[in-house]
């Protein structure tokens, strides 16, 4: 089976259909993960599509099993050179030449890498200074200064002083003195009358009949708190309160519904108990199952899937979608981590409960019909691919 996929990939590679070749080599890897030829061929196809990171990953997987594999070292050197990681690429190519000193392809590739390294050093040495670092030339300009003579002659200063004093005399009102009688020591002040009184410049006029007094009479202080409360209510003074204005124009003084007061003697009924808890005979509480809406798109499905960590909850979320509608439901929204976790949940479910084998097989087979399924499985890790193969064995094929 793996050999057939390999031949199919080789034909696609020769025809220049590198994407189809990658898919065929991936199927060969899933059929026989122990053969190093399949990831090396897929790395070569990745290099043709300039997917250097994917090519480096496949070569590194082969080198983890066989550190002296020449093709893996050479192609990883090409992939690292494509990512401009010239130091790592040089190390891989030098290791190839240490194993096969007369390899012309490795020598040519190493020469290109050396040239790129030298060009990079020259660019660093001859790199010009940016214009924004060079300080600009300071701009200078001349400003004319006019000198004003502020010295006054003695005659001018005396004339200005006399004019200012005359002006002050004209503006200031005359001041009249009011004489007061002398007070004898030890005498009573009430029997003393002033000997001379002059009319002041400013006299106080009596208030008009309709004018209000400047200081209104202050109310008497209440004797107790209860009296103050009664007076406030009688005056109609309203305290500041909260509330909300409803759409229909009515006003509510409270945002929340009033609480019902339960007397201590009354016992709570079953309707007053929380819906999320139910008491058992011995007093222990058991949680009710989650009541959540059915996901309507891939985003809601992924959010519920990530919120549940146990396999039983995830299986119930997956069962909310019919198996035959998985391809239409997810379309192009499926991602490799989510697909791998779905396979893990399916494998755990059928392992723990063999009676679900037919239903799990239906979900597994319809998962393959999701768009870009072969491309998504390319990004699975070794453990995730192993889980997918074990699931395939349990349900007799994808």
From TrEMBL:
PROSITE patterns hit by this protein: TPR (PS50005)
InterPro entries per the UniProt record, alphabetical: RPAP3 (IPR051966), RPAP3-like_C (IPR025986), TPR-like_helical_dom_sf (IPR011990), TPR_rpt (IPR019734)
Biased composition annotated in UniProt, kind: Basic and acidic residues: 148-169
Top-level taxon in the UniProt lineage: Eukaryota
Compositional bias (Pro residues): 206-220
Keyword vocabulary terms for this entry: Repeat, TPR repeat
Entry keyword annotation includes Ion transport: no
Compositionally biased region (Polar residues): 262-290
CC annotations in GO: protein folding chaperone complex
RNA-polymerase II-associated protein 3-like C-terminal domain: residues covered: 294-385
Pfam families named in the record: RPAP3_C, TPR_16, TPR_8
Residue stretches of each TPR repeat: 2-35, 70-103
Region (Disordered): 114-298
PANTHER family named among the record's database cross-references: RNA POLYMERASE II-ASSOCIATED PROTEIN 3
Similarity annotation: Belongs to the RPAP3 family.
Name used for this protein in its record: RNA polymerase II-associated protein 3
